[in-house]
């Protein structure tokens, strides 16, 4: 980025400095009140935008981002011709844009991606439909593309990426190792923000974002077709089934019976087991409310709308609670959110290793060392949900199970199944019965 947002006496301006200083007003203003460090209270200095708790912050930040994009686009177009636009000239162009006298449509990849990036931020984070975790994929892709441009000393245009030749180059680049830093032609040291040597599943995620971005460009009429990318992704990126591990019903009971002297480990064990017994996501654990437990046909059930589906389908999940699940809740005093997700998983790995119940080797390899993982290394809080679904998939009718998990599509439910388990050859004996 060549321009940045600054606050000038309460007015948010676009700052640029080449043969003079430009402070172009975005039309966004914030309170002039300052804190004891003489900084504006309503400005997020770390993220360089209006603080999120300010009224209409989303709209104001969108306005600021739009003006930064427009200013950067103009600077970039001049640089392509080998010219550093001066501050007063850039100010005139931006004023023309503001007055509607000039129309600038950039062809630069990153400038357009930043617009798409902002749209996804609003959709995934600010509207509350999904967690910030869902948005991280787009930030990772942004870092990836900045790294690609730096290493290849190129500023991509949209026309550069809409062909299979570039997709091949990008695909290969994602799969090869990446240094920690490189020296740029201008002498600066560039430190990479993304990882190299990606496995097919991670490469597929990058191409998923690229696919969404090209659909956005097609919607904006900046490209005519994006089918070539979908075809490439389908034929060239082969993702093998992810090796996962889950707890069998027998292992659930063995783990329950294993008592830990350490109170933290014992509590984390119980929270993990509750997920194995109910299919709870981490967000469900965070939002657990005892009041959602009710009586239904002689059994306790937990009825709620999962945060993941709240803004989309609003489907109510009705989860029957086993006696063991209720026993776990009693031991936890109906308090599930005790620690952060990361800390819970850290303790979980330690306690699972300590039990020596999950030390058998899997077929999953460590990407750095090539060493095969042990089962306890692959288990996490989310594997509780996988365990719940896998243990019930062959004994509970699918429509019933999907009511427990609030899934709308069978294909989504199937992603949670642990296919590494042995088959049960006894199922076919149903054909031997002759009434």
Mean pLDDT: 86
Spatial ordering of strands, largest sheet = 1-2-3
The assigned structural class equals alpha+beta
Helix content: 40-55%
List low-pLDDT spans.
none
**Hey, roughly how much beta strand do the residues contain?**
5-15%
Q: Based on DSSP secondary structure assignment, what is the total number of beta strands?
A: 12
Morphology: globular
Number of helices: 18
Order of helices and strands: EEEEEHHHHHHEEHHHHHEEHEHHEEHHHH
- Give the end-to-end Cα distance, rounded to a whole number of Å: 77 Å
Taking all Cα atoms into account, the compactness measure Rg is: 27 Å
Q: Largest sheet at a glance?
A: 3 strands, antiparallel
Pfam families: Phage_integrase
InterPro entries: DNA_brk_join_enz (IPR011010), Integrase-like_cat_sf (IPR013762), Integrase_catalytic (IPR002104)
Keywords: DNA recombination
Protein name: Tyrosine-type recombinase/integrase
